[in-house]
Amino acid sequence: MKTFCGRANPTTGAMEWLEEDENYDYHQEIARSRYADMLHDKDRNVKYYQGIRAAVSRVKERGEKAVVLDIGTGTGLLSMMAASAGADFCYAIEVFKPMANAAVKIVEKNGFRDKIKVINKHSTAVTVGPDGDMQCRANILVTELFDTELIGEGALPTYEHAHKYLVQEGCEAVPHRATVYVQLVESKRMWSWNKLFPVHVEAEDGEKIIVSPSEMENCPGVPSVCDIQLNQMPSSDFTVLSDVVTVFSVDFSKPVRSASTSCRVQLEPVKSGKAQIVLSWWDIDMDPSGMINCTMAPYWVKSTSAFQWRDHWMQCVYFLPNEEPVLKGEKVYLTACRDEYSLWYKLQKARGEEENKADVCVESPVCWCQAHLLWNRPRFGELNDQNRTRQYIKSLMKVLKTDSICLCISDGSLLPVLAHYLGAKRFFKANHLEDKIKIIETRPELLMSSHLEDKKISVLVGEPFFTTSLLPWHNLYFWYARTAVTSHLASNVAVLPQSAALHMMIVEFQDLWRIRSPCGTCEGFDVQTLDDMIKNSMNFRESREAEPHPLWEYPCKSLSDPQEVLRFDFRETVPEHSLSTEGSVNLLRKGKSHGAVLWMEYHLVADISISTGLMQISNEKGNCEWNPHCKQAVYFFSSVIESEALSDLHSAVTYAINFNTKTGEIAMDFKL
Ligand code: SAH
Predict the structure, then answer these.
(1) Which residue range or ranges hold the Protein arginine N-methyltransferase domain (predicted)?
(2) Diameter of the chain by CA atoms?
């Protein structure tokens, strides 16, 4: 059977019908999965193994048979650890079919066929009894069902069910316990991901300040967690206001309740400041004594020797509904609330003792101003970037005249407001704002002269930014929209940005390479089947794809100079033919070529450009500084070359890049 799915092409904007291959989603999921990253997480693996060995020993010491339930077995790794540690039998549950199939193969290859039964079900569908999936209840419960927020992948309901139906009372659990920690901080940088700061516009008749409406000011934002590599946040970007405190602890060896709950912790500010952000992370104790601990604590909390890079578990940033001034030594109360899958926080000043003891449950935050639904966190950060705004203002001033008729094509853009404050008379926009700015609710190709009051557009602007963009070149939609509205443009129209350029650079990643690199063996177990499966999925449809990553979170060093590879002239319409280029870049530094990074630079006007990628190469080692608001495209090479000696410096990477103007797709090929 063939299924066709409709979607709007992110680059061309065209509605298109894609033949949905039922395997396509599987392959995407496997190719982009975190399994490899987990298997590269040595710290996690070693500690699980220690915890599992200890649990099996405790059961054996009691003279019992060790029957293990491994929920979410993935590759079967934790079950194989248990079997090696002497467990009598393991039930390995995996809901994701391709992984369950892989687990069967891996278990067999490693010689555990008699000890491990892989069950391709959701744990809540597993049955126990003589005719059931499991012969009897297990006495060791092993899982790894945690995400950065701990409970976001449904660990709590899964545990709740398992204790009721699948394991014995008094069972051993690995991990034994999880603890969630918080720390209160002030951070202009992080707060800028949640609130729109006043925008300063230097107009000819003096400075004007654009402030956000009060409904936006007071909006609590969206509840979804903001998970980041907090270890990449320099300490100069935030001020610690409290010590680290525990908010929740879950004992996985006892019945678990998943129902919503809240608790309140007392904090004594160590510094006066504005409480804006709650930083949070967790740790897991693999055994009851707490001797085998695996922690996500950031660099300023734990010693660097304990550091393990990982991307499958990071740290959380929670935004308080409003900023609250706190005074050093004056106690405040933080209410932590959770439902089955997520957490959120609220700060209260200390009042009467009674009230402080009360268990106050606050509602999960809901955005009422719409802005948090339109703009994601990096987009808020981008709009709050005064430096960037200044570049747009300077550029707008160069193209705007008092009688300009402007059209803006961008999602949720402030350009019309800026242009208005800079004196543009009329502004049309394919979205918000009233009076001087008219919002046209139509697609570019359906724009009619009547929408524009029969006027011709003299200035066409865009950031460009579109919420549908994932990869840098998806914002070329601006070019397609510009092409669609051509008949409405005056002959001497000014287009801002006037062009865009795709840039490329070869890099060595400090850590990100792990997420796409084969594992071979993991703690002595052969997991190559997974490597093969991932490789097969990456080559599905014979096209390796670039993937978006916010590189400020993933340090890398440049091995080549950055190079412009393609240019897109927005003053002209999109050409019929493809744009392609071939060339080579020299490798300038020693290192491993893990892949190429690609990003866009927009030439707003002749001499003003903004980069959505590389900001600068900060030292002779080639360390890179990236635009903190944008994701860059990363194309991982299928094999890594290492240039060891400077004599290799003549080595070059050749590339062929093709932009298909019909499909809006960029295909690339690199030869090392
Ligand atoms: N245990 C493996 C894999 C962990 S990833 C390891 O430690 O390396 C978590 C896996 O659990 C995923 O493959 C996911 O599909 C599966 N999973 C999550 N919840 C589940 C549930 N309730 N029942 C069965 N599988 C589940």
Answers:
(1) 176-348, 498-671
(2) 90
Q: Is 144 a catalytic residue?
A: yes
CB 292 within 8 A of CB 366: no
Closest C-alpha residue for ligand 1 atom 3: 74
Domains of the chain: 2-32 (no CATH), 34-144 (3.40.50.150), 178-366 (2.70.160.11), 385-479 (3.40.50.150), 499-671 (2.70.160.11)
What's the 311 CA to ligand 1 centre distance in angstroms?
17
Tens of pLDDT, residue by residue over 436-474, are 678 788 888 888 888 888 889 999 999 999 999 999 999
Residue recorded with tokens 């955005």: 367
- Residue 389 CA to residue 380 CA, distance in Å, equals 12
Q: Which of 29, 64, 108, 153 is catalytic?
A: 153
Q: Which atom of ligand 1 is nearest to the CA of 154?
A: 19
Q: Please report the pLDDT score of residue 304 as a whole number.
A: 64
43-97 pLDDT, tens digit each: 999 999 999 999 999 999 999 999 999 999 999 999 999 999 999 999 999 999 9
Which region among 26-40, 166-180, 262-276 has the lowest average model confidence (pLDDT)? 26-40
Centre of ligand 1 from the C-alpha of residue 364, in Å: 27
Residue list, ligand 1 pocket, CB within 6 Å: 38, 71-75, 77-78, 93-96, 99, 122-123, 144-145, 154, 158
CA 405 to ligand 1 center in whole angstroms: 56
Is residue 27 classed as helix, strand or coil in its secondary structure?
A: helix
**CA–CA separation, 437 and 447 (whole Å):** 16
Q: Which atom of ligand 1 is nearest to the CA of 74?
A: 3
